[in-house]
């Protein structure tokens, strides 16, 4: 493979890494193992996701999420997340309030499942 082809493959892989697609309801897993409604995922990629909520958590907050990937994947993935940015509700803003989460311990197989789901919904 030529250097140009390798460079092209790397660029394509990086694009795949940053694909975004709308997502459904998320559940947080409490220390006791019980689950509760957390918010609505608006975008998801291999590295993290945006949660639309009027009550975003503070930057640096960590917690475990359960993310049910709908058809055609039909898999539940779990991982530790960290809030990396948040946006509070403002009457003057046209931007949706919420928070950006970074996945901290996403297993490779679950990351691949997310990528497959995103690809399916991008086409």
Automatic annotation (TrEMBL):
UniProt protein name: PilZ domain-containing protein
Coiled coil: none
SUPFAM superfamilies with a match to the protein in the record: PilZ domain-like
Pfam families (UniProt xref): PilZ (PF07238)
Domain PilZ residue range list: 14-119
Lineage: Bacteria, Pseudomonadati, Thermodesulfobacteriota, Desulfuromonadia, Desulfuromonadales
GO molecular function, one term: cyclic-di-GMP binding
